[in-house]
Amino acid sequence: MKTLLSVPPALSRVASSLIPATFGDCFVTHDPEGAKLGSGGGTAHLLREAWRADGESQSFAEWLQRDDRVLVHAGGQSRRLPAYAALGKALLPVPVFRWCAGQRLDQTLGELQLPLLQKILEAAGAQSHTLIASGDVLIWNDRPLPEIPDADVVCVGLWDSPETAAGHGVFFTPRAHPEQFDFMLQKPDPSRVAELSSTHLFLLDIGIWLLSDRAVEVLMRKSGWNPQTGDDGELSEYDLYGEFGLGLGENPTVEDPELAELTCAVLPLSEAEFHHFGTNRDLIGSSLALQNRVNDQRRIFSPLIKPHPSIFIQNAEVACSLGSENQEVWIENSSIPDTWKLSKQHVITGIPENDWIVKLSEGTCLDVVPIGGECFAVRVYGFHDRFRGDLNLDSTTWMGKPAADWFRRRRLPIPEGDDLQKVPLFPVLRREEMNGKFMRWIVEEEPREDPGFARLYRDAEKLSAEELANRCAMERVDQDRKRRLVESLPVLARHAGRSVFYQSDLYRAAELAAPSDVVFDEVSPAASENLYACVRSRMFHSALERMRGGDGSEQEAEAFRAMRNAIVDPYRRTAPVPRNSVLSDQVIWARSPVRLDLAGGWTDTPPYCFLNGGRVVNLSVELNGQPPVQIFARTSDRPGISLRSIDLGSEVSLRSYEDIGAYAEIGSDFAIPRAALALCGFHPDFQSGTGYPSLDAQLEEFGGGLEITLLCAIPKGSGLGTSSVLSSALLACLSELAGYGWDSVAIGNRVLALEQMLTSGGGWQDQYGGAVRGLKMLETGPGLDQTPDIRWLPGHLFTDPQFQGCRLLYYTGVTRVAHNVLSEIVRGMFLNRQEHLRCLEDLSDHALRMYECLQKGDFERMGRLVDRTWELNQRLDSGTCTPVIQKILEPLNDWLLGKKLLGAGGGGYLLMFAKDEAAALRIRRHLQENPPNARARFVDFSLSETGLQVTRS
């Protein structure tokens, strides 16, 4: 998916060095200087320039079909938000939300906008490849997207009041047919909206439009360019919302035969929020609303203790006093010494290091903008200024008062100009000319008369707001912003208890800090004091050390050890004394199915699930008609504990506590049974009470030795959660043997601890997925207690004969150890790495969609959703689909609804859903005739209606 950005000219010229990598494959341009194209013509220009940049090797129509693209209009003059006129809204810095993990400390508005826009486009019909969005609006949507209508034009809308509708475009749909787009009005009077609401529903246009290729070509023609000929003709002014939109619908406001041929629909985002960033007040108001959209203190990572909630400071050093009276204050990329005195309603940007004595009155904004060479433009303006109108008219305000007043008070001639935006107001000065006295003279309402300053202002080159936006030295601004941000990082870390540092993307923070020599001297909290801050601090220092060429392994090991102890410690010295509960000739037999995961995998993995909860959909299955994991246990007259593996053909005798405690040693055989025995009280680390002097003494009191035989009829690296299933079967068997009576929850939670004891980590879905019968969704909330709620689903899609032939399970013969994958992804979780957390959030939402689909019994959609799971797994870990796996899949794709490698991917079992039985036969034939290796084979599977079972002879 590509991103196409329309930005101001100053940014466009240096975009390649300033656009963050998070924008992905990004094309940047600006509207032709001096041309008025409108939103429709601007869209046409952006598309045409992107096509030309790709070399015009394809026709425009072919190029449209080739890729999906998100267009963001982030240019414009920004008259009511002058500080970011040159930068454009896309790169406007936005503070990290106090309730959100994984945001970058240098995040921009565009980075926050793109995820939703990309999700909408990904979910759109096959005919829609183009999404258009307004760059000064952030739509925040926490809910899963509704199904997107299949139409040439799909307009995204929000519910609101008639009064709010008066300032927007408004879509109307008949109450009797709410799925129908009837017509659109631009900024209708509230009384008109109220009148229509008796027959129609209405939604606000939020500037997000999905267009089919056919609709794009119509828009191009309306904007004066013929996509068939691809000529170089000039584009004309055309309004996407005011002209194109008014011609859409069953009963359009404006009749247009060409537009009438396009199908259209409205997509309501019922619980989404609209945040505008078009004015100074919007900048602060929307930032405040976003901070406060979550008030549940359990979900707030940082208290963000500030003198007033509407004070926002970013990439800045502020030493002046701030109190509750300082409201609506935005300070960014600036150095403000303690000699400044602030009031309220300020936007302060770009201020260099200084010792000025400055007092800003209410509503005064100040911006110092680097211009070519070593010069700066000083821009002073009012918080509510609109930068419109004739300077000589009293209705035209600058500094919140009639614009001409500023000149009269300084005995300066009033410049001519019928548009304040184009009047040269802002002096260009050398750094040494910007002293404190001059700055006071320029900002004060009643300045002291000073002929020298008046002369300096009069003789200096002066730029208009329009010229300033074009001549801003963007790279100097960016360098200053990054330098100040990096310098602030140790301060944020030092005050992490009340800053956003530990909740931010720490990988990105390390990337920012690594090239510098900044020193982080904060004291990391102990795990007992704050587990998450402890592990994040250590993992951050590990990442930083690696990026600076060091090893970083010691800090990383401390982080993993802290989490491991948090999970395992509750079971240390708590196991009751095992008591023999079987007769001498009895055998305990535990057998368990394995799990096939359909959606949500990885969300069950600590530490992610501890902070967010997990949500997975999986099913418990038997292979080739039997539960593939089986354990047999009995008492023995022989001393010690004998462990045998039928499938591995090996055995070992454990004669001491040291033998059992060797479970965590590298290369230890029978590590899982050793750890299971320890957890069940056959090791002093886990025994309650005084314990025993030796294993022999404990077994003598127990009534004899133990013989445990394991059968695991699954290849290693299968992706079926075998190690967790084996662990749960072992614990269930030992619980029965020792008379503990543990239920599935007690066993499942201990498996989580057991895997930490082995340092392999892992989530909770494998043990519950195999041990708990049937098809189900398992869900947990935040916290160390990860006992899942289980919601069973109808399993007929996996039992009904009509679907039997379309479900295929294939062992690829390729193995991959999940531990290596797990370590890398868990590292990303510790560091709040943004791309990991966003993907995990998508996986969790996707599990909910799968749950709803299975409730409805839609086999085709289930297959498509499994394919989406596969896409998300690859996004989380690119190694999920190796070249070997890709070679297996490529010939099969045309016959498949969906497929995924089970578990961590990279090898093991491949679950496939064919389009029909004929397609399934073709898949079978192809793989049987062209196996990737000698071990590859099809395996029959059936839904288990029993789950884990334990019986005795």
Automatic annotation (TrEMBL):
Residues 699-768 form the GHMP kinase N-terminal domain. One of its GO terms (molecular function) is nucleotidyltransferase activity. GO terms for biological process: GDP-L-fucose salvage. Residues 850-931 form the GHMP kinase C-terminal domain. Pfam families: Fucose_pyrophosphorylase, GHMP_kinases_C, GHMP_kinases_N. Keywords: ATP-binding, Kinase, Nucleotide-binding, Nucleotidyltransferase, Transferase. Residues 70-221 form the GDP-fucose pyrophosphorylase domain. It comes from the Bacteria. Belongs to the GHMP kinase family. This is Bifunctional fucokinase/L-fucose-1-P-guanylyltransferase.
